[in-house]
Design brief:
The complex is a heterodimer of chains A (370) and B (322).
Chain A lengths: L10 E5 L11 E7 L2 E8 L7 H6 L3 H11 L4 H16 L5 H29 L4 H21 L19 H26 L2 H7 L7 H7 L4 H5 L6 H4 L20 H25 L19 E9 L2 E9 L7 E5 L1 H6 L2 H5 L4 H11 L3 H5 L1
Helix pairs in contact in A: 2-3, 3-4, 4-5, 4-11, 4-14, 5-6, 6-11
Chain B lengths: L9 H33 L15 H10 L11 H10 L2 H6 L17 H9 L2 H11 L3 H32 L4 H6 L6 H4 L1 H14 L11 H4 L9 H26 L10 H20 L7 H29 L1
Classes of the chains: A mainly alpha (370), B mainly alpha (322).
Chain lengths: 370, 322
């Protein structure tokens, strides 16, 4: 609370930790003047579980399912990053078919994450119907991934050196059918959302982030791309099979909420392109590297790997001391950096705008708290 | 129920009151079901299907559940005001039914100031919302209440002005006169702008999306009724749906020729038109995102009021010339 007499015309409004639009247990302490925000202060840590510490007390493989719980919306990218880190330590070469499968499933997961975001975001803006349309589309992805990974949300599919189960032709055909279906749904989204006057009024020119601010706060993912910086790890530091595919990085111009929306919207198209190419070109062969040790005990060393997750750069810094457990594991999560800009861009906006801005950051709170 | 005669027996009044209560209850049950079904079809999902034919008695089950819920009163509320608000919101809604002509003869009291009665009582709703929001002692509820006041003030003005242009053509505040004046052509064809403005204002008046700012769930959690539970919450809900019925009934009377129509009895035509308007309002809700509060006020003061005034002036000129 404010000291009395100092700034009495402001009052404090607690947005969260239980609020429909904080997308999890995030609390934003707002100092308000009327409906205008003077200061927004995100308060995190309500869902802290100590994943990084857990890693130190488990074997390499035992920690793998944890990653799906850190960012439950793009779990496979987290799987990918961790596997890459361990593979680098073990100097394992992943077979090409496994890399293709990883790309296909990871991109499907990215589309699922973006679809959920678009739905939830429009719900923040008060539109309910697109939410269910998006979930209807997302359901197809969940069904597809369910068949290869065995779970619907917190996937734990990749292994050190490849993937444990091969995909069948039905799955590949399903991917193509899904790509076709989602393309046809774009027309609905265009008419229902992208051309909607109220939607444009609510999103254009609000929550503008300049390119300097992006660099200053270390933003990644659609947040920077919305401001016009074409930073995407799949292109900048290509990993897995991404260099083999032809795709573009959508960028915005002004860096407002609308641009961030459009970046994610266009990104789904690009992911569809990648999936289609990968399905067409998928090679046959083994799905697991040869000579994966039964007991994973990498030689001492440290490694940093990064992947482009749905929310931005996800990195793992892994230190091994030649033990069966990691000596230290640090997660670099995109949402944490992305949320850090909220206090700066939320000033002098209305509560309704704050909800829109917070939504456009696309925070996954368990990932921040981890 | 009495005919157009001005003296109504006490039995007529009691019968009318019972009729109104029954209508309010049945209308709310039907509208909740309708809203669920309309939204379900727009959102490509089945909606309630379990209880009764296509979930027809789902809302009765819901109402029973709400009746059985504990009435929680938070500790720090302003008790008398907090308890009075759900009742206050409900009374003006009931009174409005006194003067609505459901058909030629089906009207409780045909007053010569019928329009004024409905509109003046409709203005009381905002008092109840303010009471509820303020007494709840919750910042979000206060937000909702304050927004509601600003919104209702902003939208009642253009609403009245649009209705005035019709009244100017008829020359009477009596609702039956207004319907009678549309024997040859509905006013929706003579006053299309007024009709569109009226629908927009009516949506805002009833706090329906995209103007549902008093209860904007993504920003204010539930707005003015955050702290209400069980039947008290249900009363707010009931009032909202009955309000929808009243604004739709007014639209029917003013623009769509009231109970007039071929073959079917008057009451059937009246209800068809009313529910068609309500369907339209529901359609808005499941299509548009919510507007921001300043945009809402801007829309009213800078666009709707000037347009409504211009429409009124043009109407006056045309009437003078003809």
């Amino acid at each position: 609370m404010l000291e009395r007499g100092l700034e009495e015309k402001f009052y404090v409004l607690n947005l969260g930790p239980q609020h429909p639009s904080t997308h999890g247990v995030l609390r934003v302490e707002l100092q308000m003047e009327g409906e205008f925000i003077v200061k927004a202060d995100p308060d995190i840590g309500y869902g802290h579980r100590g994943h990084e510490h857990m890693a130190e007390n488990r074997s390499y493989l035992q920690f793998l399912p944890n990653l799906g719980r850190v960012d439950y919306l793009h779990a496979l990218a987290y799987n990918q990053c961790y596997c890459m880190a361990v593979e680098k330590l073990l100097e394992l070469k992943v077979p090409e078919r496994a890399e293709f499968i990883r790309v296909i499933t990871c991109e499907l997961n990215r589309i699922a994450s973006h679809l959920l975001w678009i739905g939830a975001y429009l719900l923040d803006l008060g539109a309910f119907t697109p939410f269910l349309y998006c979930f209807d589309d997302r359901e197809n992805i969940l069904d597809l991934l369910d068949r290869v990974t065995g779970s619907r949300l917190t996937y734990c599919y990749y292994r050190f050196g490849g993937v444990p189960r091969d995909v069948d032709d039905d799955f590949l055909a399903g991917c193509k059918a899904f790509a076709k279906r989602l393309r046809s749904r774009y027309r609905d989204y265009e008419n229902l959302v992208n051309k909607n006057v109220i939607f444009l009024e609510r999103t254009k020119g609000i929550g503008i982030i300049s390119q300097e601010q992006c660099v200053k706060y270390g933003l990644t993912g659609p947040m920077v791309r919305g401001s016009g910086i074409p930073y995407d790890i799949r292109k900048c530091e290509p990993y897995s099979a991404y260099p083999l595919f032809d795709f573009e990085i959508p960028v915005g111009t002004t860096g407002d909420i609308y641009d961030r929306y459009m970046v994610r919207y266009r990104e789904m198209e690009q992911s569809l392109r990648i999936i289609e190419q990968a399905v067409d070109k998928i090679p046959s062969g083994p799905i697991m590297a040869e000579k994966v040790p039964k007991r994973i005990k990498p030689a001492p060393g440290e490694v940093y790997t990064a992947v482009e997750a749905a929310r931005g750069e996800f990195g793992i810094y892994l230190v091994s001391q030649g033990d069966t457990n990691p000596y230290r594991l640090k997660l670099r999560v995109p949402s944490f950096g992305n949320l850090s800009i909220l206090p700066e861009i939320a000033v002098d906006t209305l509560v309704a705008d704050l909800v829109a801005i917070l939504g456009s950051i696309d925070v996954v709170v368990p990932e921040i708290d981890r | 129920m009495a005919t157009a005669a001005q003296s109504v027996s006490i039995f007529g009044m009691i019968a009318g009151l019972i009729g109104v209560m029954a209508l309010v209850a049945v209308n709310a049950l039907f509208l909740i079901w309708m809203e669920r079904k309309v939204s379900a079809h727009m959102q490509l999902r089945p909606g309630p299907m379990e209880v009764g034919w296509h979930g027809a008695i789902q809302t009765i089950a819901d109402a029973l559940k709400l009746l059985g819920k504990e009435l929680i009163t938070p500790r720090d509320v302003d008790k008398p005001v907090y308890l009075a608000a759900p009742i206050v919101i409900f009374l003006p809604v009931l009174v409005s039914f006194l003067v609505i002509p459901f058909s030629q003869n089906l009207i409780i009291r045909d007053m010569n100031v019928g329009v004024l009665l409905i509109l003046s009582f409709a203005a009381l709703t905002v008092l109840a919302i303010l009471m509820a929001g303020w007494a709840s002692n919750n910042k979000y509820a206060v937000f909702g209440a304050i927004r509601s006041v600003a919104q209702n003030v902003a939208y009642e003005i253009p609403l009245l002005i649009t209705l005035m242009s019709v009244i100017l053509m008829v020359g009477s505040f009596r609702l039956t006169d207004i319907v009678a004046a549309q024997s040859r052509i509905w006013f929706v064809f003579l006053q299309p702008i007024a009709f569109i403005l009226y629908i927009i204002c009516a949506t805002a008046e009833t706090n329906r999306a995209p103007f549902d700012l008093p209860e904007a769930e993504s920003e204010l959690v539930a707005g003015f009724h955050t702290e209400y539970s069980g039947m008290r919450f249900a009363l707010f809900f009931l009032a909202e749906y009955t309000n929808m019925f009243i604004v739709a009934a007014l639209a029917t009377i003013f623009f769509l020729g009231g109970w007039r129509g071929p073959f079917l009895p008057g009451i059937v035509w009246f209800l068809i038109k009313v529910y068609a308007i309500i369907f339209l309002i529901m359609w808005f809700r499941w299509t548009f995102p919510r507007v921001r509060f300043d945009q809402l006020i801007t829309l009213s003061w800078k666009i709707l009021i000037p347009l409504a005034l211009a429409n009124l002036i043009v109407t006056a000129f045309v009437l003078k010339l003809v």
